[in-house]
Amino acid sequence: MSKIKIDKNIFSKKASWSFGKNIAPKFDNHIKKSVPMYKDSQWLCKELSDYFVKENSIIYDIGCSTGSFLKQIAIRHKAKKNVKYYGIDIVKQMITYAKKYNKIKNIEFLNKDIKKLKLKKNDFTISFYTLQFINQNYRQAMINKIYKNLNWGGAFFFAEKVRSYDARTQDMMNEIYKEWKYNNGFSNEEINSKTKSLKGVLDPFSTKGNLELLKRAGFKDISTVAKFVCFEVFLAIK
Ligand SMILES: C[S@@+](CC[C@H](N)C(=O)[O-])C[C@H]1O[C@@H](n2cnc3c(N)ncnc32)[C@H](O)[C@@H]1O
Q: What is the pTM of this model?
């Protein structure tokens, strides 16, 4: 199968998008360019983390990629004693990169599959744009595990691409997102190639689907804290 161009120096194949190979050094720049309100969502997560990160807290970032965001959170709370951070990613190259460039003393980066990882009791679980890559069969079990391992009063902050509630708005949002990417510096060829490479790999739920996952797990206090076109950020408090 022939290679298709996704971004400057990033290539893939149809239905074969992967976070491995040599993506890690280019990843932070690629995602910032690809996801609307990416930096704003990170800002929001840091602001909200002030309500949940305390002395002796444990914090998780599931699907941490290069670890650059977890490092920002750790730096923000550096005055709090005995806080421990875990960055989890299934891709070895991401964790190798995170350990090299974003390691600080209270962060541990683990090359693990969230499906198999036993979580410790924690106060704040973060996951940016990762659930959408987890097999649908396993997604409920993953949210159940996150809920079960949060301390009472702890929170799950996560961001996802979301499908629309009906076909008409789904078409509209797809077109508007393509336009957003074009205005953000991608060529039409790169936009189409990324869509092709993500086929069968990226599988988002709708807003309703995500809310139902959270409710079935036991979360009661659930808010959408940001939404733009087909991207949504949720805060679910235990
Ligand atoms: C879109 S990226 C996440 C971006 C990152 N959180 C950020 O905000 O920049 C999705 C990440 O989830 C990881 N991932 C996918 N499936 C996973 C799994 N089962 N367990 C752990 N990590 C997983 C991928 O390797 C990838 O690095």
A: 0.95
